[in-house]
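Handout, section B. The chain below has 293 residues.
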Amino acid sequence: MAELKPILDEKRKLVDGKATQYRTSRDEWNARTKEHTVTRNELNAEVRELIQNVRQQREIREQMNELVREKKAVRSQANTEVKEAKASLDAEKGEKPEPVQEQGFRGRREKKITVHSLRRDLDRLEREFEQGKHVGKNEKKVMEKMKGIAADIKRMKEAEEGNGELKDARGSLRAAMESQESAHVEVQKAAKAAQEAHELMLQWNKEVDRQREMAESAHRELRKSKKEADKAHHFYIVSLRCLHSIQDMLRAMRGASSKDGSGARVEVQDLMSKLMSGETLSTDELMQLQRFD
């Protein structure tokens, strides 16, 4: 049995080294687990905050969409008022004393003569005159025509200014068009705000997905490190049990060598053989070895 003591000493040192290695590995994996836990928790907190931002932008978007609908209703009403004001103005213009040719050549309906249409014709002739398109006898003819158009414009303007109802109709149209433009601007502003909120919501959604993936990755690393830490801890405990068993056997051998009796030596050898073959010693067997101390 004395020749087995060096073998057990060597095994004890080997197992002691393995136990230290497993303990170090366990502590390292536990440290990584803590790091991954902190990272995961921080990322999850950021995800919750980002989700809140998404909800906030969605609420803003819905509010702006509702505002768009309201402003469109206002604009629609303004459009109706403009049409009514234009119809009223056209009616007033239709009562002016200037004759208006309703039917043209071959029965075709001609446009009404207005200050605006006369001014447009005058501007066209002035441009043509400046470009040199009317020369010679035609130049004098065009000059006379331009003077006539200018006189008609002056006469029609004086007639319109003297017509109070026509003047009121123009004022109503102007006010209606201003309201229409203002309503249209409000619709555009609300629509732009709704679109901005929608785009920002989509950006926050992408950030939520990105952060969530990072959090899930950190959680996977956490589970991996915890699994490795548990494995290393298990091997560490097994190494300690083996180490204690070897130490108990060495103490038993020292006790057995100081006593007479081959039965004790045989029993120690049997227990040692079981341990060396990879079997686990029971508590009773360990206590039995301890009795040899």
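Note. The chain has six helices and no strands. Compare this with the example in section A.
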